[in-house]
């Protein structure tokens, strides 16, 4: 099985999604901010929206893999099960007594049930504590709203916890506490699931912070990396070194993005819709700059040039005259509203064909005027975590772009 991705727009063959489930039902007005959601989603409707998204992809011949299925299959491998169990038990929050109770609880779960717990977490009242097997001081002092194992409601955004560059997978190192454990799951899947045997890695968790939403494969050999709230300059540098060493790219564009919720990742302000066109948030388009990092010869340090305007630096690195820009929305206020609702965050299925949220009416009209076909999907509930079709997908196979 060959997984291969060298662009944002080559015809999509296989994609990793996560159908949201009980982990979304953990969100309450008490914890939604720390769990990185702006509202409390209606779980059933979010699932319907997500199913429609997956159906739209399948209808166009895309193979859809679900993270929970891969995880369940991975947990059938003894080493993977031991490793993932060990990882949740190692949390210093637990202490020895509670750790022993949780270990007992997990030991009896079959792979599917264990996958559920690793994704949806374990609530205080779900752990059966009896007088013979007490939970100790930690369990006693826990608030009944606390989680024994924290849920992962942002797993929905599969873009961020792993990424593919050509034939290598990168398991990322997520910045926010609420998301760190996500990459333990993707790491186990790629290391132990039979489908991925022999796959080489271009990034590993535990390295400098890097999230997939910040990584844009502008063209074969040219990668843009946003640095801001989620990916650090050190993460961008590390990715650069690793892709250069593996011969996966010759140029990295490091693009500073404002450290704000609305622009947490580069893909919240810019996504590609054609081999030479981006959909971009006009309120930042002209201000966005890039540093060009070019691979050194024979292990020399990479060369850093810039800053230069992002669009110029990108076109130069891609060796094209210019990168065409399609604006999000028309006037600044509509643009701001539609950027917030992930109008920028389209997923390309092929050059000039992409999926976007239907609610971003002006942006979608702009795309159509520019000759880009948009497949609209509903996202009233899915969008409450601030992520669109690109965030909710991790492409594993795209047809290579010929240059
Ligand atoms: N690639 C993206 N833009 N992902 C969006 C992730 C949204 C998620 N709630 C977070 O804050 O992390």
From TrEMBL:
Keywords: Arginine metabolism, Cytoplasm, Hydrolase. It catalyses: L-arginine + H2O = L-citrulline + NH4(+). Coiled coil: none annotated. The keyword Hydrolase applies. It is an enzyme of class 3 (hydrolase). Its EC number is 3.5.3.6. It comes from the Bacteria. The keyword Signal does not apply. GO terms for molecular function: arginine deiminase activity. InterPro entries: Arg_deiminase. The active site is at 391 (amidino-cysteine intermediate). It holds the Pfam family ADI. It is found in: Cytoplasm. Pathway: Amino-acid degradation; L-arginine degradation via ADI pathway; carbamoyl phosphate from L-arginine: step 1/2. Belongs to the arginine deiminase family. This is Arginine deiminase. It comes from Micromonospora azadirachtae.
């Amino acid at each position: 099985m060959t997984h291969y991705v060298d662009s944002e727009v080559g015809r999509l063959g296989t994609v990793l999604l996560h159908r949201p489930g009980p982990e979304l039902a953990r969100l309450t007005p008490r914890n939604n901010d720390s769990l990185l959601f702006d509202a409390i989603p209606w779980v059933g409707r979010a699932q319907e929206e997500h199913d429609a998204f997956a159906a739209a992809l399948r209808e166009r011949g895309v193979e859809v893999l679900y993270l929970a299925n891969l995880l369940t299959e991975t947990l059938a491998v003894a080493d993977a099960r031991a490793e993932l169990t060990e990882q949740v038990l190692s949390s210093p929050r637990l202490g020895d007594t509670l750790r022993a109770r949780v270990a007992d609880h997990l030991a009896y779960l079959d792979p599917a049930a264990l996958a559920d717990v690793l994704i949806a977490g374990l609530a205080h009242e779900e752990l059966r504590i009896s007088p013979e097997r007490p939970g100790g001081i930690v369990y006693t002092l826990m608030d009944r709203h606390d989680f024994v194992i924290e849920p992962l409601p942002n797993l929905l955004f599969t873009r961020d916890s792993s990424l593919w560059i050509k034939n290598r997978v990168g398991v990322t190192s997520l910045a926010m506490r609420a998301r760190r454990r996500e990459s333990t799951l993707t790491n186990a899947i790629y290391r132990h699931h039979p489908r991925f045997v022999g796959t080489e890695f271009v990034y590993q968790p535990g390295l400098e912070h890097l999230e997939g939403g910040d990584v844009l494969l502008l063209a074969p050999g040219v990668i843009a990396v946003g640095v801001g709230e989620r990916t650090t300059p050190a993460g961008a540098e590390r990715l650069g070194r690793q892709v250069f060493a593996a011969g996966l790219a010759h140029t990295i564009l490091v693009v500073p993005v404002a450290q704000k919720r609305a622009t947490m990742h580069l893909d919240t302000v810019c996504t590609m819709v054609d081999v030479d066109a981006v959909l971009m948030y006009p309120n930042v388009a002209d201000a966005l700059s890039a540093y060009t990092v070019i691979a050194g010869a024979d292990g020399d340090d990479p060369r850093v040039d810039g800053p230069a305007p992002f669009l110029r630096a990108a076109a130069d690195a891609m060796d094209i005259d210019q990168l065409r820009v399609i604006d999000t929305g028309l006037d600044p206020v509509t643009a701001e509203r539609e950027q917030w609702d992930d109008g920028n965050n389209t997923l390309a299925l092929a050059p000039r064909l992409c999926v976007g949220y239907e609610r971003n009416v002006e942006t979608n009209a702009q795309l159509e005027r520019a000759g880009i076909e948009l497949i609209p999907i509903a996202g009233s509930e899915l969008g409450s975590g601030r992520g669109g079709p690109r965030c909710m997908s991790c492409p594993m196979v795209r047809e290579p772009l010929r240059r």
